[in-house]
Amino acid sequence: LSGFDVVVLKTTFVTIRGRVFCYQRGLLRALEEFRPDAILCEGESNVLGYLQAYRYRRSHPDVALIHWSLGGLPGVEVDRRSLRSRVKFALQRDFDGFVVYSSFGKRYLMDLGHPSEKVYVATNVCDTERHSRAASELSESRSEVRASLSLPDRFTVLYVGDMGPGKRVEVLLRAAAMLEEVEYSFVLVGGGEGFEELRQLAAALRLVNVVFAGAVNDEIPRYYRASDVMVVPGRGGMVISEGMVYELPVIVHHADGTEYDLVQDGITGLRLKEGTPEDIATALRSLRSDPAIARRMGANGRRLIETQFRTQTMVSGIMQAVQSARQRRLHGRVVCKDS
User: Fold this and answer.
1) Model confidence over 84-127: pLDDT tens digits?
2) How many CB atoms lie within 10 A of CB 318?
């Protein structure tokens, strides 16, 4: 990070009933030195941080607080009567505004009880400009890139992300076992927790058409170019926009909510109802059997990113939330003083 003031605080991670929370030491002191007009508090795992932000605002009542998160996760129903929902709402209700990753996240917060006018959508996307440049600079054909990566020249399915349990990569492997190995290749880019277990599962399923590429950085545009389709079998979201920039149709089940904005079923990709191995296998067969539709979805996806969901669009959504929350806070203070 460069070009602006940034302070990195030491962070302690605390596990409470299986959930990890982070505590940033010296946060109140840093806020006193910086004197912000608004504070963006990111994510539920940072609840210890935004409780400190609440404390800071007691002595600085003009400061606007904005909560920035997923809003909620697809597949998780909102029950306003549950203890979890009531606690969550109680912790959030004094925020002056909310930034959420998607329109799904906004609906989730509204179902929880927050007013629509306080919730702003900044659909979470990648650095679209950088990836767009990288895609435009790739002059090689799909077949040529596959050859350079030592991949077979056949219908290629791409997964990008870490291998943790919430990603459901094992479901993709079981889908691969249902498909003809001479017609499909599966490329898994990423590492982390679960990597070795997934390699063992692929061996147990006797999958010879699966490549574990590991962590990839500079070469990631080439893997996108080498592929025909991207599958996001579980949680995640940033890679959806990345794949769309490279004109890949995206197959998704329950991700992080951004799929509600980005993956228009049958237009830019396929939204699965069940997310089972059978569901994924059926979707892959349909795209492989009709390359023209797959290409059309990919082109539609890139067009959608370029016209509606660029990085700058996300930045604008965040700034609107900050400005609105700041005005709401100052207006509320004036009303209180006048009354």
Assistant:
1) 788 888 888 899 999 999 999 999 999 999 999 999 999 999 99
2) 15
Q: What's the rounded Cα separation, in Å, for the pair 307 and 290?
A: 26
- Over residues 292-303, the pLDDT tens digits come to 999 999 999 999
In this structure, what token pair is assigned to residue 269?
């990709």
Cα 260-262-267 angle, rounded to 5 deg: 100
Strand 11-16 relative to strand 19-24, pairing: antiparallel
**CA–CA distance from 186 to each of 11, 76, 139, 172, 290 (Å)?**
38, 29, 23, 9, 18
Residues with Cβ < 8 Å from 113, sequence gap 6 or more?
Answer: 80, 89, 93
CB 268 within 8 A of CB 304: yes
- Order of strands, sheet of 119-121, starting from the edge strand that comes earlier in the sequence: 38-42, 64-69, 97-100, 119-121
Per-residue pLDDT tens for 240-289? 999 999 999 999 999 999 999 999 999 999 999 999 999 999 999 999 99
Contact status, residue 322 vs residue 66, Cβ threshold 8 Å: yes
| Region of 101 on the Ramachandran plot (φ > 0 left; ψ -120 to 50 alpha; else beta) | alpha
Q: CA 28 to CA 35: how far, in whole Å?
A: 10
Amino acid letter at 56? Answer: Y
Q: Which residues of 291-307 are buried (b: 16+ CB within 10 A; e: fewer)?
A: eeebeebbebbbebbee
Alpha-carbon distance 229 to 102, whole Å?
23
Which residue in 228, 313, 226 sits closest to 269, CA to CA? 228
pTM of the complete model: 0.90
